[in-house]
Specification:
The chain has about 280 residues and is an alpha/beta fold. About 40% of the residues lie in helices and about 20% in strands. It has a 4-stranded parallel β-sheet, sandwiched between helices. The longest helix has 15 residues.
C-alpha cells in the first residue's frame, strides 16, 4: 500500500500566524481571553488553553486584561465594546479575512448593497457582515437565495467567505445576475483554499481510498470532503487517527490523505502511523 499526502494538507498561513500570535501573547503574563475558539480544531484549542488563554462567551470588565481576536475575525460592534470595557486588543485575524472586510467596506461606501456568500452562522461571515454600516444579505446555498429580497437590489457588491467552494459560488452568482442589474463580484476565496480544493479534485480519482482529516466544526474541511466524496465513494472524514476503521483499507493499494487548514501536523502524522500499523 502507498500513502499519498497532499502537499497542501494542514495549516494554512492564516492559522499558523494566529497560533504564533496567541503563544507570543502568553509571554506578556497578562490575563488573556478569547471569545470562542482560535480556530475550528479541538487539538489546537486544547493547546491554546494549556498555554493559559481562557475562552469566554461574553465580554466583562476588561481593565488589565487582553482580548485576543481569533483567526476568523470579529464584528466592529464586538471590537468597540471590548475597547470601551478596557481590554487591550491583540488581533490574530487572518490577513486574508481582513482583506475581505476591507473590500466589503469599499463596496458599501461606493453605494453597493453587500451580499456575502457563505455559511450564515460561521464566525468569519458574522465578522464580515458585522463590519458594515447596513445589513448584509447572507446566502449559504443555491436553494436558499431570497429571491424576493434580491429582486429589489439595483447594485450589489458580492464577497465570499474565504473557504467556500468556487463551483457553488458560481451557481449562486448566475442567479444573482438574473435578478440584479449590476453585480460587482470579488472572488475572495483565499489562495490556500483554492490550492486545497484543486488537489482534492484529482486525488480521489488516483487513490482507492481518501482520508480527510479535520474537525467536524471546520468549514474548509467540510468543503474538501464535499468535493472528494462524489469523486470517490471510499472517502472518509475523520477528526483523529482513532476513528479509522480497518475495513476501510481492504484491498486498497493507494490511500490519499489531505487535511483542513486548521488541522495540526501532529494529527496528520498520527493518521499516517495508524494506517501503517493497520
Amino acid at each position: 500500500m502507498k500513502i499519498h499526502l497532499a502537499k497542501s494538507a494542514g495549516f494554512c498561513f492564516g492559522v499558523r500566524k494566529a497560533i504564533t500570535i496567541a503563544l507570543e501573547t502568553v509571554k506578556t503574563k497578562k490575563p488573556i481571553f478569547m471569545l470562542g475558539d482560535i480556530v475550528h480544531n479541538e487539538e489546537v484549542v486544547r493547546q491554546i488553553q494549556r498555554a493559559g488563554i481562557k475562552k469566554i462567551s461574553r465580554l466583562g470588565r476588561g481593565a488589565g486584561k487582553t482580548l485576543l481576536i481569533r483567526a476568523h475575525g470579529c464584528s466592529n460592534k464586538t471590537l468597540k465594546k471590548a475597547l470601551d470595557l478596557g481590554y487591550t486588543i491583540i488581533d490574530a485575524t487572518c490577513p486574508m479575512v481582513k482583506e475581505i472586510h476591507a473590500i466589503a467596506g469599499k463596496l458599501e461606501n461606493s453605494g453597493c448593497r453587500i451580499i456575502v456568500i457563505g455559511d450564515k452562522r460561521h464566525d468569519e461571515v458574522q465578522g464580515i457582515a458585522g463590519g458594515l454600516k447596513s445589513k448584509a444579505v447572507i446566502i449559504d446555498k443555491l436553494e436558499n437565495i431570497p429571491i424576493e429580497k434580491i429582486k429589489h437590489i439595483r447594485r450589489a457588491g458580492v464577497v465570499v467567505q474565504s473557504t467556500q467552494n468556487l463551483d457553488n459560488v458560481q451557481k449562486i452568482l448566475d442567479v444573482l445576475r438574473r435578478y440584479i442589474p449590476i453585480v460587482e463580484f470579488h472572488n475572495t476565496i483565499c489562495n490556500p483554499t483554492r490550492i486545497k480544493q484543486g488537489e482534492v479534485k484529482t486525488m480521489p480519482l488516483k487513490n482507492d481510498v481518501m482520508i480527510i482529516i479535520g474537525s467536524k466544526t471546520s468549514a474548509n474541511t467540510k468543503r474538501i470532503y464535499e468535493i472528494a466524496k462524489p469523486l470517490n465513494n471510499r472517502t472518509y472524514w475523520i477528526s483523529s487517527a482513532k476513528e479509522i476503521k480497518k475495513p476501510w483499507l481492504n484491498n486498497a493499494k493507494n490511500v490519499g490523505i489531505t487535511a483542513g487548514a486548521s488541522t495540526p501536523e501532529s494529527s496528520i502524522h498520527a493518521v499516517i502511523q495508524r494506517i501503517k500499523t493497520l
